[in-house]
């Protein structure tokens, strides 16, 4: 099959295809870890934060989860909050695939791969967020289907494990394939990635829907037990994902040779405009239902927005989130957002932070406050929890940086098989980053 | 750095050489830092060992394998808590379905049941853990929003009544559905149990339970040797490992041998009634048939086997 699709070079043997791909991976590693001084500073800072997080996690495994501020009343905290946001980010990362393929927008194709890269990093972050939340990470193998005991299809958590891992594999395949083809200087064969792109669109929706089902399927938690939860998740993912991609594109435009046309970012901003309105509308609808009905169903929302029984730990968080979301939305609607100015960067940051709170602490914690028997026990993350979470973000950004760097090199032809074969083809600007030919002896 | 002279790159190109050296040094340093960051893992308690790691799910263990596991757990209790314990494994009895009823007119909120649970089930001493929460409720309704589980005054207080809540041993247990790895399940006699050596501690069951009946071992339980209850069973009151879920089992190590739950024996007012729901002559059946009993959160469809009633 594979050989039949390859167009020009006279049928390379299987062995050489494998070797060539391994060679690509080896050179890709070299390119991705090579850069200017600010690249090394950035990577060292991220590694340092990741190490602090790893150390905090190791302490937590040793001493028990007592080092977190979670309790039997608030049994999930910052970790699961961050998990929920990262799943949204991963789903949203692929959302830009939709205009590219469903509406045949040619210019979007180039940046689809950025979305996939964000998705890969975000999925890794969400997986790590769950792993650090386990009381017994040493028993992870109980979760492996076939070896452990997989309570599928009953437990929504097993569904989530399947869709998250599947999503990671699909995106790794798409990114790997597109980059490799570009590296070889060949046109990607649509048969080998278009079906996966469509699968990943469907799959992106599924990961966030199923993550919402984790919560909204629990009858004992009225705050989560609403059919609007999954649509709300999707709407906010359509904001946080594209916003994160816009930020990534800005960084790449400033620091790499990879140049984007302005159109894709503007398409993304139009997506964000609509999604943010839908998101805020659904939030308003939810708040109306809760408060107008009142009674015990509103008690979590009461705690979240106004505090109850003298406890009001989440009130500043939630109002900060609402202000950030609304101001971010307004900024996105200004004409300046469509120009390449800092307005859109500020808008992106506002919306990302706003949604991180809304889909994180603002969603998970009130599910537990008041408890199922209406006890009010508050929660705020411990230093260890902050360290671990920061470590996870540092790790995610580290992976994202490496992938984006690789994408920039391949797409600006700094990293290409042709250059290594024909010595006379030298990139015009002779970038200092890639002196890879020296290794092909 | 030029790309044109590729023949002897390392000698020709000191920039590459230095960069490579720095990269290697950086990677080595990184690995060392990684090892240092993970060092706390080396101090893990001895209960994390190869046998424990490879142990199969309780329901897949043969009787011989069970014997080995129980022996190991007894040795661990000796090593870590310095007590001689026996770990039994009483099976569910035929034609038995356990049910519990509680007379709210009689309960005075003394929390003797919670204390008995604390001792019987080898709970962590520092956290004063118990599977039973007693709520002080306002007369005139069953509204937990007006309830208070942390009251600290002589009981019974005027205008109040008391409502102990523990695991309801639901027929449709949301915790069992939630568990991703079948570490918790419903036994034939209706008791929902946890394999403490299989649970990964994700706490999804704790989020799913509508009755706040589940507890997590946030740290290793501390119990002085002389206070440990040595009469233990694998699925109920043995000392739990760190990082796993636990819950009320209606004291199955007692009740499956024909004895009564510790909380019932401790109750000074006789508010508690325990028995076999399948036995038409049992006291619990009499209560259900002759009192106007109710269950908590009936609308959730969990079908609890824990019934409350008032004496008029």
Automatic annotation (TrEMBL), chain A:
<feature type="transmembrane region" description="Helical">
    <location>
        <begin position="314"/>
        <end position="333"/>
    </location>
</feature>
<dbReference type="GO" id="GO:0005886">
    <property type="term" value="C:plasma membrane"/>
</dbReference>
<comment type="similarity">
    <text>Belongs to the NrfD family.</text>
</comment>
<feature type="transmembrane region" description="Helical">
    <location>
        <begin position="390"/>
        <end position="413"/>
    </location>
</feature>
<feature type="transmembrane region" description="Helical">
    <location>
        <begin position="152"/>
        <end position="180"/>
    </location>
</feature>
<feature type="transmembrane region" description="Helical">
    <location>
        <begin position="268"/>
        <end position="294"/>
    </location>
</feature>
<keyword id="KW-0812">Transmembrane</keyword>
<feature type="transmembrane region" description="Helical">
    <location>
        <begin position="192"/>
        <end position="215"/>
    </location>
</feature>
<protein>
    <submittedName>
        <fullName>Putative hydrogenase 2 b cytochrome subunit</fullName>
    </submittedName>
</protein>
<feature type="transmembrane region" description="Helical">
    <location>
        <begin position="345"/>
        <end position="370"/>
    </location>
</feature>
<dbReference type="InterPro" id="IPR005614">
    <property type="entry name" value="NrfD-like"/>
</dbReference>
<keyword id="KW-1133">Transmembrane helix</keyword>
<feature type="transmembrane region" description="Helical">
    <location>
        <begin position="78"/>
        <end position="102"/>
    </location>
</feature>
<keyword id="KW-0472">Membrane</keyword>
<keyword id="KW-1003">Cell membrane</keyword>
<feature type="transmembrane region" description="Helical">
    <location>
        <begin position="111"/>
        <end position="132"/>
    </location>
</feature>
<dbReference type="InterPro" id="IPR054823">
    <property type="entry name" value="DsrP-like"/>
</dbReference>
<dbReference type="Pfam" id="PF03916">
    <property type="entry name" value="NrfD"/>
</dbReference>
<feature type="transmembrane region" description="Helical">
    <location>
        <begin position="227"/>
        <end position="247"/>
    </location>
</feature>
<feature type="transmembrane region" description="Helical">
    <location>
        <begin position="37"/>
        <end position="58"/>
    </location>
</feature>
From TrEMBL, chain B:
<feature type="domain" description="4Fe-4S ferredoxin-type">
    <location>
        <begin position="190"/>
        <end position="219"/>
    </location>
</feature>
<dbReference type="InterPro" id="IPR017900">
    <property type="entry name" value="4Fe4S_Fe_S_CS"/>
</dbReference>
<keyword id="KW-0004">4Fe-4S</keyword>
<keyword id="KW-0408">Iron</keyword>
<dbReference type="GO" id="GO:0051539">
    <property type="term" value="F:4 iron, 4 sulfur cluster binding"/>
</dbReference>
<dbReference type="InterPro" id="IPR050954">
    <property type="entry name" value="ET_IronSulfur_Cluster-Binding"/>
</dbReference>
<keyword id="KW-0479">Metal-binding</keyword>
<dbReference type="GO" id="GO:0046872">
    <property type="term" value="F:metal ion binding"/>
</dbReference>
<dbReference type="InterPro" id="IPR006311">
    <property type="entry name" value="TAT_signal"/>
</dbReference>
<protein>
    <submittedName>
        <fullName>Tetrathionate reductase subunit B</fullName>
    </submittedName>
</protein>
<dbReference type="InterPro" id="IPR017896">
    <property type="entry name" value="4Fe4S_Fe-S-bd"/>
</dbReference>
<keyword id="KW-0411">Iron-sulfur</keyword>
<dbReference type="Pfam" id="PF13247">
    <property type="entry name" value="Fer4_11"/>
</dbReference>
<feature type="domain" description="4Fe-4S ferredoxin-type">
    <location>
        <begin position="98"/>
        <end position="128"/>
    </location>
</feature>
